[in-house]
Amino acid sequence: MKTACAGADLMELRLDGVASPDLRRLLEHRPCPVIVTVRHGSQGGRYSGSEANRLAVLQNAIDLGAEYVDVELFAAGELEPRGNTKLIVSHHDFEKTPADLRVLHQELRKTGAHIVKLVTMARDICDNLRMFELLRSTDVPTIGFCMGEEGQISRVLTKKFGGYLTYAAPERGREAAPGQLTVSELRELYHYESIGTDTEIYGVIGNPVAHSLSPAIHNAAFQEAGIDAVYLPFKVADVGAFVRGFRALDVRGYSVTIPHKSRIVQELDEIGPLSRRIGAVNTVINRDGKLLGRNTDYMGALRPLERLLGGNGAHSLEGKRVVLCGAGGAARAVAFGLAERNAKVVIVNRTHEKGVKLAEEVGCGAQPRESLCDLAYDVLINTTSVGMHPNVDETPVPKEALRRGAVVMDAVYNPPETRLLREAREAGCRTISGVEWFIDQAAAQFELWTGMKAPHELMTDVLLMRLGAGN
Ligand code: NAP
User: Fold this and answer.
1) 20 to 30 Å CA-CA from 413: which of 27, 109, 245, 345?
2) CA 366, 399, 470: angle at the middle one, nearest 5?
3) What is the pLDDT of residue 315?
4) Atom 3, ligand 1: which residue's CA is nearest?
5) From CA 298, how far away is CA 293, in angstroms rounded?
6) What is the arithmetic mean of pLDDT over 386-390?
7) How do strand 430-432 and strand 365-367 relate by DSSP bridges?
8) Ligand 1 center to residue 388 CA distance, Å?
């Protein structure tokens, strides 16, 4: 109990997981306030004894003065509240989030519960909206959130909307319900203790999104800048329904990642001219209720290049010969950005026809992959995923194509130094890691959202720490 309650304000004793609990002894030694629960099988518990015995344990917990006792809706009338023990009357739906949560909530509150607990399964990210609406509108202390990966945001945001408490696992692998975060994720990643009614919401829209590094980077940046905001991963299947539904929450800004960067364009109120030409948005800014779309992917690549080339700032790329390896989404954003800076771009792609097609749209050149060793350039940028963890021994560019004194940049940020960058460094090139690109696109988002300078160094440290931990 001592280990489990580290970092928690109170602890749930799930006695359905204990063969013959010595309740008196457990309560005597509790290191923090407790909720005593003997969860019934029909509500996701493991209790296998008689119902009479189950209720006797719960009544005993009340008589021994446990701070909270949790009982299922169907058994609420069987217990006799007394002393200072608060009765939590709960209902869990492991299948869905019902259309009208208020009906269930009404039933729960009719039992005379001190605290009502309503937990449902989110099948879609928009299911959370009904839970938030319920929390906002009730005057009864309510524990309310959604389960599952799509419901994870509600385990954090429940506090903003007035939820009584949230549950967290002591460590990964010991979750009591689907989608449960750990105590350290809640505290260290989402800064749960500082979330309040006024906390602003940001997040990344993607699918999948669970492994996105953006929440770690942006939450650390908000914390450092003293901004009352939380940044969450939104696992979104239907981006149209999501953007329309979540307007009700006044989300202040989104990052957008695969596969929604192009489709989201039609859901927004205004798109920047270059983002429109690129045809993709990775950043959404909420300005007085209007959703503005921008693309910082290309800024992420151009900013570190312009820093390294120095000289005349935004004009440092003008006239530079740039070889762009790849013709996917990242290449597209960078190619339009480079063209705007009047760089001389040549696209080299595995599927040559795709390279030619992008070059026609941008108004630049395209060459087949075989000609890479014959091309003269000042800057070479890899925008393919070649060399990315775990295929760290691969490189998209043969050594013979590396030119002393040129700048070589990689979109791949895991590992921070790819084989391409190592060989380029050894060949006397100046190199820029995908880490810089990633941080600069995130920093540009932060600046568009807040109008403040991003804590660049801290964001880099957080990213490198996460990458180090992941491999
Ligand atoms: P994408 O749209 O799927 O494009 C992938 C590109 O890589 C295509 O041009 C593809 O060529 C090429 N490619 C894939 N496998 C290849 C191989 N084995 N050999 C040669 N070419 C290959 O992906 P994307 O969104 O552009 O992203 C590409 C990479 O950039 C990813 O690793 C992504 O994580 C990274 N990225 C990093 C940042 C950052 O902030 N550092 C930002 C954006 C993207 P074909 O046309 O022949 O299929």
Assistant:
1) 345
2) 95
3) 78
4) 328
5) 14
6) 96
7) unpaired
8) 10
Question: 144 in ligand 1 pocket by Cβ < 6 Å?
Answer: no
What b/e readout covers 76-114, taking b as 16+ CB neighbours within 10 angstroms?
Answer: beebebeeebbbbbbbbbeeebeeebeebbeebbeeebe
Catalytic: which of 105, 260, 261, 320? 261
Q: Report whether pLDDT(6) > 90.
A: no
Residues 92-127 pLDDT 10s: 999 999 998 999 999 999 999 999 999 999 999 999
Whether 117 is catalytic is yes
- Our answer on whether the CB atom of 330 is closer than 6 Å to any ligand 1 atom is yes
Is 100 a known active-site residue? no
Distance 450 CA to ligand 1 centre (A): 30
CA of 200 to the centre of ligand 1 (A): 33
Residues 276, 231: contact at Cβ < 8 Å?
no
Q: Which of 91, 92, 191, 260 is catalytic?
A: 92
Q: Residue 33: helix, strand or coil by DSSP? A: coil
Q: Which amino acid residue places its CA nearest to atom 44 of ligand 1?
A: 330
Mark out the alpha helices in 389-455 (DSSP H runs).
419-426, 434-450
The residue among 63, 76, 81, 70 whose CA lies nearest residue 27 is: 63
Cβ of 415 closer than 6 Å to ligand 1, yes or no, is: no
DSSP assigned state of 411: S
- Contacts with 404 (C-beta within 8 Å, 6 or more apart), sequence order: 427, 428, 429
CA angle 425, 429, 435 (to 5 degrees): 65
For 114, list phi and psi in degrees, rounded to 5.
Answer: -70, -40
| Structural contact between residues 438 and 432, judged by C-beta atoms closer than 8 angstroms | no
The size of the chain, in residues, is 471
Q: How far apart are CA 449 and CA 287, in angstroms?
A: 9
Ligand 1 binding pocket includes 387 (Cβ within 6 Å): no
CA 98 to centroid of chain Cα atoms: 25
pTM score, whole prediction: 0.94
Greatest alpha-carbon pair distance for the chain in Å reads 85
CA of residue 333 to ligand 1 center, whole Å: 12
- Which pLDDT belongs to residue 312? 56
Are 437 and 308 a contacting pair, CB within 8 Å? no
Options 86, 117, 159, 218, the catalytic residue: 117
pLDDT digits (tens, 9 = 90+) for 296-327: 999 999 999 999 998 655 679 999 999 999 99
